[in-house]
Design goal:
With 101 residues, the protein is of the alpha+beta class. The chain is 24% helix and 41% strand. The protein has a single domain, classed as Alpha-Beta Plaits (2-Layer Sandwich).
């Protein structure tokens, strides 16, 4: 039996990993994610990169991905933006968007 196609409103989950000079990108990404109605988190790593989890409507997730690739923060210079572990989910796993320490 073939499963019915998922609705375009089925939430999408994915993990960004940002490389380069990532100063203040977490704070700016959090603000942009909240503006787009997304949930999840971002966190600076010990390697000087930023990683996270983004969840929400696929079109909004894609919009934040593009924002991270092309706009980011005035203090940042993103040399590489990877988006991994992308999958459709049945329900959001977070209540809001946070900056983890």
């Amino acid at each position: 039996m073939v499963a019915p196609p998922r609705s375009p409103s089925t939430p999408l989950s994915g993990g960004p990993h940002l490389y380069g000079r990532v100063g203040a990108i977490g704070r700016r990404a959090s603000g942009e994610a909240k503006r787009l109605g997304l949930v999840g988190w971002v966190q600076n790593t010990s390697h000087g990169t930023v990683q996270g989890q983004i969840q929400g409507p696929p079109a909004r997730v894609r919009e934040l991905q593009e924002w991270l690739r092309k706009v980011g923060s005035p203090q940042s210079r993103i040399s590489q933006a990877e988006f991994s572990n992308e999958k459709k989910i049945t329900a959001l796993e977070h209540k809001d968007f946070q900056i983890l320490k």
